[in-house]
Amino acid sequence: MAESEIDLEFKRGELTRKLSAGEDVVIQSERAAVLRNVTCPKAQYHFVVLPKEEIANVLALKREHLPLLDHMMDLANDVIKQQQLSPSDFRIGFKIDSFMNRLNMHVISNDFYSSSMRRIQHWNTFNSDLFITFQAIYALLCVKGSVEPMPAEQVEQLLHATPVHCNQCSFYTENFGQLKRHLYIHWRERESERLSKMGVANLSQRMGQMQINGNGGTMSQRPFNPFYRQIRMHNYQFVPRFQGTVRPQLRPTYENSNWNNIRPHYQHPAPPRPPSNDLQKTQPDAASNPAPSKGAEQPLHAKHPKKKWYVNKKKNSHSSSSNPKGDANTKLI
DNA sequence: GTTCTAGAAC
DNA sequence: GTTCTAGAAC
């Protein structure tokens, strides 16, 4: 076996090793455990539920595993409850073509807002037929007793399928970067709404305490700032969540703390862009006229045809004088 | 699975 | 100039 294949095989065993070592384990029972996806979370909250029984993947599931699945779902609900969130905020299910060599059930918040959500393939693995919901798997096992594999060509096609559709509104785009910016807008709105609700709740609670204490308390304490710590990662700055038993994955900081004017902080200012499909276009009246764009004026895939023709050229690219970056790299070597 | 990188697109 | 993508490597 080639060294790279051994390395890949080692990577495929990462979840199993973590399970054995108890690493990143949030909840566990005798039969299964919930691990937090620390290395590459694809949303603000991303967990995986692993059975302790050695089951390679979803294709190895049989009807006899239904009680185990029930138990795994119980653990999923437990971890969601632990985060003080609602199951409706999550997608729960399995990848039909998982990379890992141990069955793992994803419990992922449907914001899909994370710096690790970098490629269109990442999106499509959770938002296409490549992702089978818990309910669907359960039904398949009940009726057929097993899950059939998906042909490799279909997997490949679904991985790269465009346009990509937002899971929260009618927005769609050919450009994955555009979708990521769009998801950020959704996340920002939801987070703002959540925090404002929490603010009202905290205020009510404090008012109650003041009455109980005969107004011994004061309101002079500064309001809590959730963006108290900054960690630079990729294009965004992220900070850990300020509350909860398990900290969330990644969180952006903003140029200022004014809620009416919050923007993501980029390492480099984004260049001016032409009018594009943004959230506004997907609001009520846009439902009947979803996201017209310059991409829609041309055939799909027209902008990014497969570029296989230059593969061989790349191998000799160090000698090319037309690429100053390549020359610089060559000099360093 | 992720990271790195060249080349294309903008 | 930056952003985006796909392929190679790990």
From TrEMBL:
GO terms of biological process kind: single strand break repair
GO molecular function: DNA 5'-adenosine monophosphate hydrolase activity; double-stranded RNA binding; mismatched DNA binding; single-strand break-containing DNA binding; single-stranded DNA binding
SUPFAM superfamilies in UniProt: HIT-like (SSF54197)
Cellular component annotations (GO), alphabetically ordered: nucleus
Alphabetical list of InterPro entries matching this protein: HIT-like_sf, Znf-C2HE
Biased composition (Basic residues): 301-317
Region span, Disordered: 251-333
Stretches with biased composition (Polar residues): 277-286
Pfam families: DcpS_C, zf-C2HE
Domain Aprataxin C2HE/C2H2/C2HC zinc finger span(s) in chain numbering: 127-189
Record protein name field: Uncharacterized protein, isoform A
Gene transcribed to yield this protein: Dmoj\GI23102
